[in-house]
Amino acid sequence: MKVLSLCLLVGVGVSSLRCQSQSSHMKETTPQQVVKTDNEWKKELSPTEYHILREKGTEIAFTGEFWNNTRDGIYYCAGCNTPLFSSETKYKSGTGWPSFWKPLNDKNIKIVKDNSLGMVREEVVCAICGGHIGHVFNDGPKPTGLRYCLNSGALHFKEVTSEK
Ligand SMILES: [Zn+2]
Questions:
Q1: What's the pLDDT at 2?
Q2: CA of 11 to the centre of ligand 1 (A)
Q3: What is the mean pLDDT of the chain?
Q4: 155-159 and 147-150: which strand pairing?
Q5: At a CB cut-off of 8 Å and minimum separation 6, what does 147 contact?
Q6: pLDDT tens profile 108-126
Q7: Which stretches of the chain are DSSP H helices?
Q8: Residues with beta carbon < 5 A to ion ligand 1?
Q9: Coil, strand or helix: which one is 90?
Q10: Tens place of pLDDT for every residue, the chain, 164 residues?
């Protein structure tokens, strides 16, 4: 009996210590990463979402769901549901892809150098799941001068209706 209660005490001590260190760690870092295998992504995503997010595909201009969506709302990563862009910074770029001049939160996206197709471009990646969302260019409107050129197929849209 004595040995058993000792073990229990030690067990409790260790787990409460672990809980404490985890919670302080969470506060310092950016949101937790979502990491999945290729097979898991394949099961969860539609073929289009998988092609864009995981294979860095690009949808054909003027074919996506959101290039001319003018409703108010938030655009979420189709892979992990992280809010990435808002209709407040969406604008008509004429490119046929949904275009924004600013992300909702800089922490939720990552910019990565992309040298594919013989061009030097800056890729926009979801910071949480690493999914490919689109590219960012320097020919956007004020105040940022940036054009986040995204794929509708990498996004989910949730309409926000203003309450009056
Ligand atoms: Zn994501």
A1: 47
A2: 37
A3: 86
A4: unpaired
A5: 93, 99, 100, 101, 136, 137, 138, 139, 140, 141
A6: 999 999 998 899 999 999 9
A7: 2-28, 38-44, 47-55
A8: 77, 79-80, 82, 126, 128-129, 131
A9: strand
A10: 444 444 344 444 444 444 344 444 444 455 689 999 999 999 999 999 999 999 999 999 999 999 999 999 999 999 999 999 999 999 999 999 999 999 999 999 999 999 988 999 999 999 999 999 999 999 999 999 999 999 999 999 999 987 65
If 0-12 CB within 10 Å is exposed, 13-18 middle and 19+ buried, where does residue 131 land?
buried
In angstroms, what is the span from residue 75 Cα to ligand 1's centroid? 11
Active centre residues (catalytic): 149
Distance 142 CA to ligand 1 centre (A): 27
What is the CA(96)–ligand 1 centre distance, in A? 22
Question: Where on the phi/psi map is residue 98: left (φ > 0), alpha (ψ -120 to 50), or beta?
Answer: beta
Which residue matches tokens 């770029």? 93
Quick one: CA torsion of 110, 137, 79, 159, rounded to 10 degrees?
120
The tokens 């892809």 sit on which residue? Answer: 97
Question: Which of these, 107, 105, 95, lies nearest to 135 by C-alpha position?
Answer: 95
Structure tokens that stand for 99 in this block? 């275009």
